[in-house]
Amino acid sequence: MPSVHIKTYGCQMNERDSEQVAKMLGERGYRMTGVEADADVILLNTCSVRDMAEQKAIGKMGMLRKLRKERPHLVLGYLGCMAQARGESLTKTSTHVDLVVGTQKFHRVADYVDDLLRRRIEARMDDERLPIVDVDEEEGSQSTIREQELTAGQCTAFVSIMQGCNMHCAFCIVPQTRGEERARIIEDIVAEVRGLADRGVREVTLLGQIVNLYGRHEFPKTGGLSPFVQLLEAVCGVEGIERVRFTSPHPIGFRADLIAAFGRLPKLVEHVHLPLQSGSNRILKIMRRGYTSAAFVDLVGKLRAERPGIAITTDIIVGFPGETDEDYAATRSLVDQVGFDNAFVFRYSPRQNTPAATMGEQVSEDVKEWRNKDLLEVVNRYVARHLDALVGQNVGILCEGASRNNSERLSGRTRTNKIVVFAGAPRLIGRLFDVRIARASSSTLYGEVV
Q: Residues 417, 422, 428, 430: what is their CA dihedral angle, to the nearest 10 degrees?
């Protein structure tokens, strides 16, 4: 059977979507390959959150034109968010593309690939190409990403619990690329998690665009608990699952029941990725974020009180339209105040058909670059402080496999999502145990198995 190479850009949701596509293709006998030159089909699963991500995917597809000339029957396709946003126009900018599939049609990819390869065999002519474009909405698409192809020894997995977003932040294109909020039912999600546990998975990460608003319009509260907290309880109750994470939430979704869950659900790890975006109240209002800097700081305090030692990471945008030096200073001050365990800092990137893209007072690239660099220096000081505090301590980790940068060593993550590298035998993969931390680099801990 033909071989397929999938390259994924962007977030964990995209990674999970790619896994589902690979699973479906594998069930039809396709062989997955990590080498582009060996592939009969190359699919780029794209991201639209920032312009740079789109340009990387378009540039990559341009580079594949040469490979197409060498192998005329090669099938090339765009999947995901950029495919959804740009649709048929991608067949004009990348004229050698055969397939454009949006975010609600991943479950159709295998059918389309079958069709394209059959056409190649029957036509036997490169000029017979007619691209397939499918970016239509499909009811129930949130329930199609549910089966997983696990690798040998895999002990962690992403679980998609919903699609779409209703928040409409001024800078964000996600509501356009992923549609409105649509949730899977709890029973289906728990069944998927139970199946993963039976196959050796010990940690699951629940995924959603605004994950902690799961089911708010579709399912009722029960016993004063939101649908999301009900789901957390159910997933934590699955035998064999030792750790539960979720990403990416919104600060306004942290009601009292969710905060309390961190104190009463032992399997819910002490790590929250809590996007801030800006520390300026003026900018937060223009962004349509729905909270103030004081409310954000108060939420962090409540989480730390409920689960001492909880790690807080975040996302921050610098250079949003109209951001003044005073606005940036407010963000810098809040980062200093909270002392995040880590942060992703992004320069604002205009996205088509979003309110922010047409706002006046667009900030220059030079100013964005300076603020980005300056804020990272502040963030990195706290990253180092949090890591250094663990030197000499025993920390519990889940061993995930070989270290990414040194195949002769193993690596795992703490419950607070910090990477630990250590020497050990392959039999340790998939197990939970303590490692004594000997030293810390700028982003990684190093230690020995206790």
A: 20
Whether residue 242 is found in the same domain as residue 357: yes
In this structure, are 214 and 257 located in the same domain?
yes
**pLDDT-flagged residues of the chain (< 70):** 121, 123-129
Those residues whose C-beta lies under 8 Å from the C-beta of residue 405, and which sit 6 or more positions away, are: none
Q: Which two tokens stand for residue 385?
A: 């402080």
| Dist CA 443 CA 450 (whole Å) | 22
| Residues 177 and 161 occupy one common structural domain | yes
Measured at the CA of 328, the angle between CA 53 and CA 332, to 5 degrees, comes to 95
Answer yes or no: are the C-beta atoms of 61 and 97 closer than 8 Å. Answer: yes
pLDDT of amino acid 127: 47
pLDDT, one tens digit per residue, over 190-235 is 999 999 999 999 999 999 999 999 999 999 999 999 999 999 999 9
The reply to whether 271 and 376 lie within a common domain is yes
Residue 355 near residue 170 (C-beta atoms within 8 A): yes
Can you give the pLDDT at residue 123? 63
Distances (CA, A) of 170 to 50, 150, 216, 247, 358: 14, 37, 22, 21, 10
pLDDT digits (tens, 9 = 90+) for 164-200: 999 999 999 999 898 999 999 999 999 999 999 999 9
Q: State the residue range of the domain holding 105.
A: 3-134
Residue 432: how many CB atoms within 10 A of its CB?
A: 16
